[in-house]
Design a protein that fits this description.
The structure holds two protein chains of two kinds. Chain A contains 15 helices and four strands. By secondary structure, chain A is mainly alpha-helical. Chain A has one domain. Chain A has a two-stranded antiparallel ribbon. A two-stranded antiparallel ribbon of chain A has the order 3-4. The longest helix of chain A is centred in the first third of the chain and has 31 residues. Chain B has two domains: 216 residues, 3-Layer(aba) Sandwich (Rossmann fold); 134 residues, Response regulator (Rossmann fold, 3-Layer(aba) Sandwich), CATH 3.40.50. Chain B has a seven-stranded mixed sheet, with helices on both faces. Chain B starts with 7 loop residues before the first helix and ends in an 18-residue tail after the last helix. Chain B is 39% helix and 18% strand. Chain B is an alpha/beta fold. The relative contact order of chain B is 0.15. In chain B, helix 3 runs parallel beside helix 12, helix 4 runs parallel beside helix 5 and helix 9 packs parallel to helix 10. Classes of the chains: A mainly alpha, B alpha/beta.
């Protein structure tokens, strides 16, 4: 029972990441009709926003200590971050909370990146076949990850959570199980709650604002909305920016869970597409539901008891589920009629 | 009047004579006869081929290997401060190249993929005239390229490859490894683990599902079980699994009190990060402090795990903090040129370049069989690992092995590991026949 509880918890943060990426993919596909293979790269760029903010906050004041030398004979560099020099303990706290602080910076940065991507490249492919959209966005993803690698290197870069959020919550004790048997890191729980919050905000934005109403109308019938005199293209540019922000925030908050490297976007991209397909192309609710469902199932499939019966199941479970769901329900869990059909 | 008669016999004789006459100029100048071996250098230079990961997950390690190779070439040709040439016990190299030829080099990108690595090695041999191939950051790649070099008739001086198979069941006459292997890691770590954690322990293994992971798991299990440890489970994880939390959580209630992470590079960083996040480093099981072991450490990679490596044991081939004359000379040379200390990958690659050059100089030729014979049984010192021997039977270097621990109070971002034990060669040595395989004959190509 403890093992099952643990894997359910495990699936929540992973599912949160899948859901956030898939949500952005679905918004872009539903509004612009673009299959965006660069969406994983946006997740990665969000993570590297956090890396950059930490690097900026951690810029060191370097002084040479002539009394000490390095192993290769040069004077030893004594480093202290400027924020600590200037602001003392407050500066040190700011540095420690660099990941949450990065959220504030990542929102405008990712919005800008999204708008530049859409205006600079994606809009030229709105009416092109999906195969061409996939090729160009996949190429863009490779270019972006190579740029990141050339700046930050290929190795993962650690981004620890703030000290106050590094402990664990003992769910076992809450539920009357043996203490210490069902634990869950605070940061992962934070990530899960954060993803629920972002998903809620996106839904509220689309549901309860005039802008959201127009976007939903555009998703349903783009031509009619255009005939009503509404500049749908401008709104869709902003929608692309919002989808980039959602992916970016998912990346920022994921950095303490997985040390960011240039390739992390690709790791999530394929799985997120499967999530979109399983949830139903164009269905926002389906993307969220499928994200959490597949995250939890992936965790279950990694249990030793399951792997003993089905060796290697952990590596194919998501694709297996996708095949089964598409056979039983070709539009996906919550797919709308007419989307990607003929 | 004489008769001019042509019969079948005279026609054959005449044809043979004319054929031989026409062929004479080309037979004696053709590459296959005149050279006698693949890519025999003709001019004033000899070309080395450095096959390292320049793209992909191990690109940073590959970049460090390339830096070391460039430094080695500089020193062999008489440039710089000479580095470890000054401390190397063999004095055959004089800083004027090898066998009177200046060393030049070409590079290839392995991408840490066997097929890409073979293609780049093939290109360097066939198009660029490389007389040897060296480098790499993966056992799968090393074994693939070693096979190619055997077939092509050039020497392969392996880079970072830790699987037993490289000089075990997949060994080849043309291949040589300076780096240690999983068998040695297990033998070196076991006594340290015994002292630190005792003999009544239960280990849980997470293992990268490929040749190196299997090799590492087998070795560490063998030696820890000899100590009396039990193995709770050995779980294979896919390469590049990303977040390892779903593999870590079963450890919590498994009854194990030691987690062995048979992972390298990005997988090691991610699995160790997840293990620490789930509190394994601070957990108590069976009344004992839970322990985590990373059998193969890389300082370069350990930096990616940040503070998570603190207090965690592992083994390494070499570390820049060593205080022998060879290590100090290399760190000084490398640090002054690049501004930071070399990694173990850089060290092994630098050594391999020097050892190959030295063997060629002593053999007086670049012919693979002669160079191989010069390396076989070669005993040397001054290259940072103490007295070392290239064992003739399997072309594996034998030397002391370092056991390291994640440093509690690092003084810089490079100061991640501390050496806690130098396990002597006698404790990590094993019979050559133990790991199977056959060297077979040398191939000089041609």
């Amino acid at each position: 029972m403890d093992a099952i509880l643990l894997q359910v918890l495990n699936g929540l943060d992973k599912g949160g990441a899948y859901a956030l990426i898939a949500l952005g993919l679905t918004i872009i596909f539903g509004t612009l009709g673009v299959v965006n293979f660069a969406h994983g790269a946006l997740f990665m760029l969000g993570a590297f926003c956090a890396v950059s903010i930490k690097a900026l906050l951690g810029l060191d004041k370097v002084t040479l200590d002539p009394t000490q030398t390095t192993a290769w004979g040069t004077p030893l560099e004594v480093r202290q971050p400027y924020v600590e020099v200037w602001f003392g303990d407050w500066g040190a706290t700011l540095l420690e909370y660099s990941v949450p602080v990065s959220i504030l910076i990542a929102i405008p940065v990712m919005l800008l990146i999204g708008i530049i991507m859409e205006r600079g490249l994606i809009r030229y492919f709105y009416k092109r076949p999906h195969a061409e959209q996939i090729l160009v966005t996949f190429g863009l993803a490779i270019v972006l990850q190579e740029i990141v690698k050339s700046i930050f290197g290929a190795n993962p870069i650690p981004q620890p959570a703030p000290d106050s959020m590094q402990g664990m919550i003992d769910f076992g004790a809450f539920l009357g199980h043996e203490a210490g048997n069902v634990v869950y890191p605070i940061w992962r729980l934070t990530y899960f709650l954060f993803s629920l919050g972002v998903i809620g905000l996106v839904f509220a934005f689309l549901q309860f604002t005039t802008f959201g109403m127009v976007v939903r109308a555009g998703m349903a019938d783009r031509e009619t909305v255009g005939l009503l005199g509404i500049d749908i293209d401008r709104r869709f540019t902003i929608v692309f920016g919002i989808a980039a922000v959602v992916a970016g925030l998912a990346g920022v908050m994921y950095t303490p869970i997985l040390s960011p490297d240039y390739h992390m976007g690709m790791d999530f991209l394929v799985l997120s597409f499967v999530v979109v397909v399983v949830g139903g192309m164009g269905s926002l609710g389906g993307a969220v539901l499928a994200g959490f469902m597949l995250g939890i199932l992936q965790s279950f499939a990694s249990m030793n008891e399951v792997k003993e019966i089905f060796p290697g199941i952990d590596q194919i479970i998501i694709y297996l589920i996708a095949v089964v769901i598409l056979l039983v329900r070709p539009r996906g869990l919550m797919g709308r009629k007419g989307v990607m059909e003929g | 009047m004489s008769k001019f008669m042509i019969n079948r016999r005279s026609l054959l004789k005449g044809t043979a004579a004319v054929g031989a006459g026409l062929a004479t100029p080309t037979i004696f100048s053709s590459k296959s006869w005149a050279a006698g071996y693949t890519n025999e250098p003709k001019g004033g230079t000899v070309t080395f081929g450095f096959n390292v990961p320049q793209t992909g997950a191990y690109a940073d390690e590959g970049a460090d290997e390339l830096r070391a190779y460039e430094l080695a070439v500089e020193h062999i040709n008489g440039g710089g401060d000479g580095g470890m040439l000054n401390t190397f016990s063999s004095k055959a190299l004089k800083g004027d190249g090898v066998n009177g030829k200046k060393v030049v080099f070409v590079t290839g990108d392995t991408q840490t993929k066997s097929d890409a690595a073979r293609a780049s090695a093939k290109r360097m041999i066939e198009k660029d005239g490389a007389v040897m191939i060296t480098g790499g950051s993966s056992s799968g790649v090393a074994i693939a390229v070693q096979g190619l070099c055997q077939d092509a008739g050039v020497i392969f001086m392996a880079g970072l490859t830790h699987s037993n198979d490289t000089t075990g069941k997949d060994k080849r006459a043309n291949g040589f490894r300076h780096f240690f292997n999983t068998e040695m890691s297990g033998a070196a770590l076991a006594p340290v683990l015994k002292n630190a954690f005792g003999t009544d322990r239960t280990a849980y293994h997470l293992t990268a599902d490929y040749t190196w992971g299997w090799s590492q798991e087998g070795s560490i299990k063998k030696y820890t079980e000899q100590l009396g440890w039990k193995t709770a489970a050995a779980v294979r994880t896919p390469l590049g699994a990303g977040d390892f939390s779903q593999y870590i959580t079963p450890v919590l209630n498994s009854g194990a009190d030691v987690l062995v992470l048979n992972h390298y590079g990005r997988d090691m960083v991610n699995s160790l990060t997840a293990a620490v996040q789930f509190g394994l480093r601070d957990k108590q099981v069976n009344g004992k402090d839970f322990a985590i072991v990373v059998p193969l450490y890389s300082r370069l990679m350990a930096q990616g795990a940040g503070e998570n490596v603190k207090g965690i044991f592992g083994s390494t081939n070499w570390h820049w903090s060593l205080q022998d004359e060879g290590s100090k000379a290399f760190v000084k040379s490398f640090g002054q040129k690049y501004g930071f200390p070399p990694s173990q990958a850089a060290h092994t690659c630098y050594c391999q370049a020097l050892l190959y050059a030295d063997a060629c100089q002593r053999a007086g030729t670049f012919m693979p069989s002669a160079v191989g014979k010069a390396l076989e049984g070669f005993k040397f010192d001054g290259l940072g690992n103490g007295p070392t021997e290239y064992r003739a039977e399997d072309h594996q270097c034998f030397k002391d092995v370092l056991v390291v621990k994640g440093k509690e109070n690092p003084t810089s971002k490079f100061d991640v590991l501390e050496v806690v034990e130098v396990t002597p060669r006698s404790q990590v040595e094993y019979p050559a026949s133990m790991l199977g395989g056959e060297l077979g004959p040398y191939n000089n190509g041609g």
